[in-house]
Amino acid sequence: MTSFLQLISNNPLLIIFGTGGIIAVTAIVLGSLTKIVQVRSRERTRREIAAYIAEGSMTPEQGERLMRAGNREDA
């Protein structure tokens, strides 16, 4: 442990790149988790809309409009 601390204290670039690497990995992991949550929510909404259409409380056209309303490409 002492030799590791000496190595770090003698190499400030190691601290800079080590910290940058940790920040980069954290950002990648959090970005991936955000995307997973978004996709799961979108799929849950699709299933709910399909269920409403199947039970007859919503027309297929209304369901299609709801599905398109969430697309960012159309905005």
Characterization of the model:
The protein is mainly α and 75 residues long. It has one domain. Helices cover 84% and strands 0% of the residues. The protein has three helices and no strands. The protein has helices at residues 2-10, 12-55, 60-69. Helix 2 (12-55) runs antiparallel to helix 3 (60-69). The model has no long low-confidence stretch (mean pLDDT 90).
- Total domain count: 1
The main β sheet shows up as: none
Proportion in β-strands: under 5%
What Rg, in angstroms, do the CA atoms define?
24 Å
Low-confidence stretches: none
Topology pattern, helix = H, strand = E? HHH
Number of helices: 3
- Give the overall silhouette: rod-shaped
Quick description:
With 75 residues, the protein is mainly alpha-helical. It contains three helices and no strands.
List keywords for this structure.
75 residues; mainly alpha; 3 helices
